[in-house]
Amino acid sequence: MADFVLKGHICYSESKNELITRENAYVVCVGGKSKGVFTELPQQYAVLPLKDYSDCLIVPGMIDLHIHAPQYAFRGMCMDLELMDWLNCYTFPEEAKYMALEYAERAYAIFVNALKASATTRAVVFATRHRPATELLMKLMEESGLASYVGKVNMDREAAEVLVEESAAVSASETVQWIEAVKEKYTNTKPILTPRFIPCCSDTLMEHLRQIQMAYGLPVQSHLSESPGEIDFVHFLRPDNAFYGEAYNDYDLFGKNEDNQTDVKTVMAHCVWSTDEEIDLMRKNGVFVAHCPASNMNLSSGIAPIRKYLDLGMNIGLGTDVAGGHSDSIFRAITDAIQVSKMYWRYVDQTMKPITFPEAFYMATLGGGAFFGAVGSFAEGYAFDAVVLDDTALVHPQELSVSERLERAVYLGLDTHGIRAKYVNGEKIIF
Amino acid sequence: MADFVLKGHICYSESKNELITRENAYVVCVGGKSKGVFTELPQQYAVLPLKDYSDCLIVPGMIDLHIHAPQYAFRGMCMDLELMDWLNCYTFPEEAKYMALEYAERAYAIFVNALKASATTRAVVFATRHRPATELLMKLMEESGLASYVGKVNMDREAAEVLVEESAAVSASETVQWIEAVKEKYTNTKPILTPRFIPCCSDTLMEHLRQIQMAYGLPVQSHLSESPGEIDFVHFLRPDNAFYGEAYNDYDLFGKNEDNQTDVKTVMAHCVWSTDEEIDLMRKNGVFVAHCPASNMNLSSGIAPIRKYLDLGMNIGLGTDVAGGHSDSIFRAITDAIQVSKMYWRYVDQTMKPITFPEAFYMATLGGGAFFGAVGSFAEGYAFDAVVLDDTALVHPQELSVSERLERAVYLGLDTHGIRAKYVNGEKIIF
Question: Does A350 contact B at CB distance below 8 Å?
Fold first, then answer.
């Protein structure tokens, strides 16, 4: 792996409150990791090849904590139902198609190409319940150069017969086969346990997944407290749980469980309607929240109390949740997060100040990046994931500061046509 | 003017409830107006030149009922304040720059080029209070081929000294000079009376504007009930008015006033917090509502009750409200309108069903188009404004219907890079 230096206007976070911008600065990559950002290039790096992206903006790669690869095909359509009906009417029938590897190959190639061309460098991805298609997706993801966790979905109840797995035992055995096949196969693409959500996972299946998690030490992703109808159904299915998240916690699939001395890296998408008890457990267990504002609007779910989560110091990042979210752009998720937080302030709780641009940028990079380890910043020691943005097409009549240019680039969606280069772990994957 | 026929997948509204899609159909333009949409081309049009946009989508041009040309320069920045502070901190200082014609020339060229490249064919535009810069903007708009109403702003109080006009009399006399200069100068670019909003317009100025309106018969644009702080201020300034809109109505600048036998075509931006009395007067007077959902989120204003306005049969269209809104895309406004209506349903009033895609598309075309006359549809007799969309870059693995492709094109913002041609009044203005 080659070491190098990039020059440009460098923007990144070291904490949730501050957005650092360094004009005409240098960021050094050694062994796939950042050596830090410098306004004068230190002598010891002067020998490294330097790529001068003069007047471009250089930002950390965006982290998508929640995206459904098989739903990419119908993004931007079917936006007229709430979650449970939307799943049954549109999503489950589409996901059932991934039984056919030929369809999966066509569809996943489109998804992976799009993700590669976006500002996203790392993603936590739902596949479908189909093992062969999931393995194919992981192969394509690895070839793209992106970094990801990809999950074969587990679902043994409450879905269309064509999609639901035959039994908890079959779901578990397919999962073990899948893990065995992929667990050490790739550098950048890793498996993640993926119970779809409590409505689709029987207690027996959840117990299997607890055992599988213990055996393989995999992280976990799922959905939590997204929509009132979903939450009511979980209460019906598991009346003894005080709150939805407890159903995951009962199987040690909810972060760090001190009682059982388990520690499972976990990301839960949405958390729109989490009760104080649920929030408290998420915080205590270090569960990551994947905030997906566009999806929460499109499916009429609601607005997650992100100000609260940030102020509690919880782990939080952004997700596009394609295809509940219609766009795969994390730039868009940044601005959506700010916008919905303003509506939350206006209509729900005026003690909860709107999210600022630096806070949303933090969530999109360092906040979500923490799920992958030291990721999402240019501070020394972080994985070298970078996106180079050329904003010359966004002409303007006045002088603009670097931070103004960044904010504008994000609001105006420069990620769709303004990416000049992208690096993951120090490898240039475009262009 | 040449007559012609276009062929493609034609999508348009004839009413607010139905989106018509005609696959491989023909739309005929004679004398700048539509002769209608046909699945088989009638014999009498067979002699006309035919442009085959096979497999492209053809939609009516988008109507932007509310956009501030001088604010385009700082769109996507400065999104951290509510309306009144945002005006004072960011907007008024920027608008003051348009005193210098050199700055206006540079900035307005950028604005007009962008609008020309967008899916918008017609716009109702705020300039600044500066007469020379406003005349320049109108010249550029006319040269672009777009159709528009453009207003020199009136504001004689409550703004920075550098921007506010010296007196009501000066504001009025500048306005008359401006109208005299432009009223018959252009084919597609017309003046519109533009009191900024009640906080910035003294009673004396409003009385002048009433007289000017009567003398010249111009339409009117302004802002109404956008933000709670603004509304409180209006109550303070005009304590005798029962509601904000009455302040415009007192000067016969609020649609059709039966008592005074006046009929002034009027568009009011926002109407987020309109009371029942205000809504009733708007409906009775035929005032157009310019719904600007992105701006209403960005400035933390709130969510306008659009379901109510639609169900009351009120005149309503969409506005981008750049730079309260950060994007000049009416496609984006369509999806924003749908999204915020879902949050309104969720948090404000569950009897108000979310806006559907056909309804939002109607507002963006026929709804707003009515402000310009027979505009916004391909029904016979409508002005021939059309946008041709090439969605081949949006690859997909499955079969899609034309209406699915349209919804996807709008949600995914195909207007930024997928416009193949654009026509206004039967003239091709791109490409």
Answer: no
